[in-house]
Amino acid sequence: MSNPLSRIATRVTYGASQLSRIAWYVGHGLIMRRLAEEARRRDGGIARQRSFTNAPVPDRGRLYADMAMLLWQDLANVEAGLYPLPADHDGSLLTLLHRSRLFFEDLPEIYQRRKSGEHREVLNEKTVGKRPRYYLQNFHFQSGGWMTDESAKRYDTQVEVLFNGTANATRRQALPQLREGFAGRDQRKLRLLDIGCGTGRFLDLVKQVWPRLPSLGLDLSEPYIKYAKRHLRRWSWINFVVGNAESIPTPEASYDAVTSIFMFHELPPKVRRIIFGECARVLKPGGRLVLVDSLQRGDEPDYEGLFDLFPQNYHEPYYASYTTEDFGAISRACGLTHIRDVKAFVSKVMVFDKPVTA
User: Fold this and answer.
1) What would the mean pLDDT of 339-358 be, rounded to a whole number?
2) pTM, whole model, 2 decimals?
3) Helix, strand, coil fractions of the chain, as percent rounded to 5
4) What is the pLDDT of residues 37-94, one digit of tens each?
């Protein structure tokens, strides 16, 4: 991007869109914390509500500085031509307000579940046996777990509030790793599989770079797949399947890239290994697996306390095991090569390649 005026226009446009998103979701977070404090005062300061850690926790200044670093990297990727100026497709103001209403309406229910420790409402006579038991929980203490239309409508707001408006910017850090794997190849002849695709936010970002890349989104939640179909109806060359990544419904060596965003920390260790093996199975030789998920123990010493607080504040029963998981060893056992990890605020991008057979 050699034209100075073009560069200025890009930065102004990027700054206006991203800083307004951050202000919107940081504002939600401030209101959420104030409401929680008021609820604790009414309850007399119930101990169950108080999160605790002896490990270092970054202050707001450090968090905002690291958020700024993520945004600078995101902008640098745009200016380097790795992907276009992002369109977050958040919808109209009325849509945003509707999602905000759903978000705030669920907070009292979340508060009560957090206080009582209740997280198994999703496991009932209607759902038992239809999904793995580990999946039938109120993750994040939210109503409906991942099993309702209302949950799907709330999800993106919940995640952006958790990330202070940087969830999409974090997801985009996977795109340069895909671009490296796709270099010099015709996108129409490649195939990408996104497991745990949820509401389709990452696939939307992928399509902004490779609109004719044949892509498949796989998820266990029918409501989330339904939402993703609506969210991505602007794109072609994309399909969705409700299915279990423990047994990916596709032949061996059928995809050039497999991605998974914010999913592996929600899997039990045994299931984590099974799904990793399935990713390796469906990758073509020379294919690439890209995971985006939380930082782990040892990645950022000043953040260690967050690894204790997160599963206390949000029901995440498998997060502790995730933070000490050795993905290098798992990848080697599956015949993949661990290429690199790239930090992205409170997350990181993990890249694995399947060797080309002789």
Assistant:
1) 94
2) 0.94
3) 50, 15, 35
4) 898 888 875 545 557 888 889 999 999 999 999 999 999 999 999 999 999 999 999 9
Q: Which residues pair with 257 in a beta bridge?
A: 192, 288
Between CA 65 and CA 336 the distance in angstroms is 35
Q: Where are the beta strands (DSSP E) in the chain?
A: 192-195, 215-219, 238-242, 255-261, 283-294, 337-344, 347-353
The encoded tokens of residue 153 equal 């409508």
- Cα–Cα distance measured from residue 349 to residue 116, given in angstroms and rounded to the nearest whole number: 35
269-326 pLDDT per residue, tens: 999 999 999 999 999 999 999 999 999 999 999 999 999 999 888 999 999 999 999 9
Q: Beta partners for 117?
A: none
Strands (E), 221-314: 238-242, 255-261, 283-294
Q: Domains (ranges, CATH) in the chain? A: 1-358 (3.40.50.150)
* d(C-alpha 152, C-alpha 28), whole Å: 18
- Listed residue (330, 221, 210) closest to 280, CA to CA: 330
